[in-house]
Design goal:
heterodimer; A: 230 residues; 5-stranded antiparallel beta sheet; 3-stranded antiparallel beta sheet; rod-shaped; B: 113 residues; mainly alpha; globular
Chain lengths: 230, 113
Amino acid sequence: MKHFQSLITTLNTKARRTQVAIATICILIGVLIVTQLRVQQTASQALQAATESDLSQIVSNLDNEINALRAEAADLRLQLFKIERVSNDSSEIMKESAKNLNKLKIIAGLTKVRGQGIRVVITDENKSLNFYDLVDTVTELRSGGAEAISINGIRVIARTGITQNENGISVGRKSISPPYIVLAIGDPEVLHEALAIAGGIRDTLYSLPGVSFYITKENDIRINAAVDNL
Amino acid sequence: MLPLIGLLVGIGIGLALNIPIPAAYSKYLGVAILAALDSAIGGLRANLEMKFNEKLFITGFFSNTLMAAFIVFMGDRLGIEVLYLAAVVAFGVRLFQNLALVRRHYFQKRHWE
């Protein structure tokens, strides 16, 4: 009986130790399996676990994708190029038109003009100047490339008449009196030359009694817009 | 009963710890798990055959798992990537043999023959 009991206890302890040992190992196995399943789950998205044929399939798919994207990129580049050219053209046209408009506005006297030019001061003590002397001066300035001209503050444009009656000379419909100050915007050198050329308008007017004719080159001349002075 | 509880506890621990392992090592871990399973089933079989020795069992478990992983590693290093097949086949065959024996002993024990 005693022998039997001791056998049972040893068996029990031995059996328990076995169970504990196997259970311990099973704990380890459980941890390993879960870890491995986790890794496999993430690795299935990664490429490490892929076989060679899988990889080659993936690579060829990616190649196709790259080619498609390249073609698309080339397409889009072409489109961009076309659009750029069109917009360049239109902006070029706009610029050109704006320039032309500006030029026409200046010629029509619709805008104030400011820039380099010359100032001509003509004195006439004996009233010996005639309207055509001023017309000649304006003409010379125009042929010298003047963009804008004024006489005593009155803008001279294409339709501005310079006339003369018993009271004196009128520009537009305003009579003016000496000294006549003529402003012209343009290349100062050319304008100066146009007036001061030997045998030119300056020499002609200078020879009249009581008339002086001074030309100065200026950097900043301002000429107002034309009022309706017909 | 205790081994089953141990397995569940292990799974719980694994889920709780979430041990990060580089994907490159998962191959080694897979073969190691195979070896570990083989060891555990072998332990069950030895237990049923009444010749279980826990020292043998524990050392066998660690040496088998580590050697299995090492063989795969060596295969990669030597350029024989299929060397892991050797471990898989060896442990797979043993695993099924042990399983069959465990089943047989279990039946004999219960006198179900």
